[in-house]
Specification:
The protein is of the alpha/beta class. The protein has a single domain, classed as Ribokinase (UDP-N-acetylmuramoyl-L-alanine:D-glutamate ligase). The protein has 9 helices and 15 strands. A 9-stranded mixed beta sheet has the order 4-1-7-8-11-12-13-14-15, sandwiched between helices. A 4-stranded mixed beta sheet has the order 3-2-5-6. Strands 9-10 form a two-stranded antiparallel ribbon. Strand 9 and strand 10 form a beta hairpin. The protein is globular.
């Protein structure tokens, strides 16, 4: 099976406990490499400069034609304190080119404005299954290049699944957590995932399914959401079962956090994800909404 990922690769300077780690990242890397763990072929649509070590993508057999830019790679400074983090944009690469591709599903996960409205519209018209993490559509920068979220009129027609946290969701719709999920569903999304720290909820039709990640200590959270998204999308495409997809996504996030590794080193093996998924499958709670 094959997955297309539309997102910038990035070079992140991650600060944890006063230590700085320079890591390559971005959903292009995290989603792509996670999908390879699920034995998917990956076509990555991205842009990066000569400062990006593209051999890392080559080693994982990720396809990335026409990705090299004359501009330097998008770069963030990320400060992490527990489950909270602040971002500062240090460099912005160019927009991602669109081209149609024959794949089983698409992940669209911009990090900062690299996907134009026209490109997003074309992806939606071409995709069989589209998973969206809207974070990069919602981000703006202030005069100091600090990243904030701003209200955005995002067209979610023809989007199959979306992952948001409460802060992101409030920029698209309004209300309580339940009202947020219902409002996103009314915009046309079939599978609405709301991640609130360690609590994960999935709205499908009129039921909410939920799991709680048991991790007690949180270290580097960078990319955990991308790992979650890719695991959900790959499992949905393979198994056509949203409960297993929820559990595999939670299992992947939990394994990444438990590794206490920084950057891409936290991407877990398929076997570890599957073990965690079986654990979560027996603990899923559900309620009518």
């Amino acid at each position: 099976m094959k997955l297309a990922v539309f997102s910038h690769c990035a070079i992140d300077t991650i600060t944890i406990d006063n230590y700085n780690y320079e890591q390559i990242g971005g959903p292009g890397c995290y989603c792509g490499i996670t999908a390879r763990q699920f034995k998917f072929d990956v076509d990555l649509f991205t842009k990066f400069g000569s400062d990006f070590p593209k051999q890392y993508l080559t080693e994982h057999k990720i396809n990335f034609e026409n990705s090299e830019s004359k501009k330097n790679t998008t770069k963030f400074a990320i400060s992490i304190n527990g489950s909270d983090r602040t971002l500062k944009l240090e460099n912005e690469c160019e927009l991602i080119d669109y081209s149609s591709v024959d794949v089983d599903g698409h992940i669209v996960s911009p990090i900062y404005h690299e996907i134009s409205d026209d490109t997003f519209r074309k992806i939606k018209s071409d995709s069989n299954f589209l998973f969206v993490d809207p974070q990069g559509f919602l981000r703006q920068k202030d005069s100091q290049n600090n990243i904030t979220l701003e209200k955005t009129n995002l067209d979610l027609s023809n989007v199959n699944a979306i992952k948001v946290n409460p802060e992101e969701a409030q920029q698209i719709v309004t209300g309580s957590n339940d009202e947020i999920m219902l409002a996103l569903q009314k915009k046309g999304v079939e599978y609405v995932l709301l991640t609130n720290k360690t609590d994960v909820s999935l709205l499908v039709k009129d039921k909410v399914y939920s799991i709680t990640l048991p991790n007690k200590q949180i270290y580097d959270t960078t990319g955990v959401g991308d790992i979650f998204c890719s695991a959900f999308c790959c499992t949905m495409l393979k198994e056509k079962d949203f409960l297993w997809a929820l559990c595999f996504a939670g299992g992947a996030a939990q394994a990444a956090l438990e590794s206490r590794n920084v950057g891409l080193q936290k991407i877990p093996r398929k076997g570890t994800i599957q073990t965690n998924a079986c654990y979560f499958y027996n603990l899923v709670k559900f309620r009518d909404l």
